[in-house]
Amino acid sequence: MPNLRKKLPSANALFVFEAAARCGNFTRAAQELYVSQPAVSRMLARMEDHLGVRLFERVRGGIELTENGKILYRKISEGFNGIEGAIREIEARATGVESVTLSVSTAFTTHWLMPRMNRLNQAFPNVDLRFQLISGRIGGPLVDVDLGMRFRREDEIGENSVLVMPETLLPVCNRRYDETAATEAGRAHGDTVIVMDDGERGWHDRFEAFAAHGRHAASMLSFNDYAIVVQAALLGQGVALGWLNVVSHWLLEGALQPAEQELIVTNRRCCLVWPESRALRPAAADVRDWIIEETRADVRAVDRAYPKLGLRRSLADAGLAIG
Question: What is the pTM of this model?
Answer without folding.
Answer: 0.75
